[in-house]
Amino acid sequence: MSSSLLIRGTVAAVALLTAVRLDAQESTTIGGYGEVQYRNPSGAASPATADLRRFVIYLAHTFSDRISLRSEVEIEDAKVEASSAKGELEVEQVVFDYKLSDRLTLRSGLLLVPMGIVNEIHEPPTFNGVDRPAFDQFVIPTTWREIGAGITGSLADGWNYRLYLLNGLRAAGFTSAGTREGSGEGQDASFANPSLTGRLEYVRPGLRAGASFWYGGTTAGDTLLGRGTFSRPVTFLAADVRYDVGALALRGEVANVAIPDAAAINALYGGAVGRRIAGGYGEAAVNLLHWLAPASTQKLALFARHDRFDTQASVAPGTARDRTLDRRVTTFGLTYKPTWNTAFKGDYQVLRNAAGTGEGEVLSLGIGFQF
């Protein structure tokens, strides 16, 4: 066989094995989102504040018709200073996709956990209220992301799925306020306790419903806490639904987090982690311009949302339950969207808890955008 034939044969074999078109065109996309917030809590001890809450740069690149990359870099609270406790500069996601077919894509990188509504879709124009629902901050620790890999795609018409193997949580970071500080967020992932997470979603015009789970050990290599891949496990189970019909938009979420070995975690780290974290919220919104200006593409949503959650829904023996963590947040307000990707928001929140202490109200104004 001549050298020219050997070279041509090798090129053809590589193209066949990788299933990538050699004539595919590359492209790069730049985008982003951000939000500015003004908050005025009740009480002289809590002064009003204005903040550039977050600004995010989105960068994506298509290498071929099968291979693509998406990424986000976020700045919180306007700036980052070594002398300040506020402000963060962080990579929010880096997603590398290899599409094998319409039903199967290989995915790897720093991935958003497919839990609930807001964790994956959290651009400011996509939700009502100046801030994200409280439930999506304390029960599902948005924005939750971990290093790992998995698959995504569709099972049948209207059914989508995601299934990932990710770096696990660290029990050393758990507190009475939840699991948020247990995430490594893509930094120094050891995979001492990998976790399995997934989501099944049903989509129809005007309807999107999903169920999600997360399961993994939490020792992060600390043999004083336990040994084994799934030692001191934590289990998240969640369900959510969104339904739009005419001028009406409804959405809701529920979740339960089980930490059966909370007693051992608290004994080692001196915390007050709950054995169970639970909660949910329901929201209804109506587009007033549907009647006031039927021909308009703009939206003016009057909405109301009620969150109820408890990060110590149950506690281990010997742990005193903090009733202030059994919270109720009622939010009502307006969202004006002159375009699909810009939003001017105002809302009023009523904050209550089972202990009846530290309660109050908050007036908030904000603007949000994505591009």
What does this structure look like?
The chain has 371 residues and is mainly beta. The protein has one domain (18-370): Porin, CATH 2.40.160.10. Helices cover 9% and strands 51% of the residues. It has helices spanning 3-18, 135-138, 262-269, 289-292; strands at 27-41, 49-62, 67-76, 88-101, 104-112, 145-156, 159-166, 195-204, 207-216, 234-245, 248-258, 276-287, 299-314, 326-337, 342-353, 360-370. The protein has a 16-stranded antiparallel β-barrel. The relative contact order is 0.13.
SSE sequence, one letter per element: HEEEEEHEEEEEEHEHEEEE
* Rounded average pLDDT: 92
CATH superfamily: Porin
Distance between the termini: 55 Å
Coarse morphology: globular
CATH class group: Mainly Beta
Structural class, by secondary structure, is: mainly beta
Helical residue percent band? under 10%
Q: Strand portion, in percent?
A: over 45%
Instruction: Tell me the strand order in the biggest sheet.
Output: 1-2-3-4-5-6-7-8-9-10-11-12-13-14-15-16
User: Judging by the overall fold, what is the CATH architecture?
Assistant: Beta Barrel
The figure for the number of domains is 1
Largest sheet: 16 strands, antiparallel, barrel
Keywords:
16 strands; Porin; 9% helix; globular; 371 residues; mainly beta; 16-stranded antiparallel barrel; 4 helices
Short description:
The chain has 371 residues and is mainly beta. It has helices at 3-18, 135-138, 262-269, 289-292; strands spanning 27-41, 49-62, 67-76, 88-101, 104-112, 145-156, 159-166, 195-204, 207-216, 234-245, 248-258, 276-287, 299-314, 326-337, 342-353, 360-370.
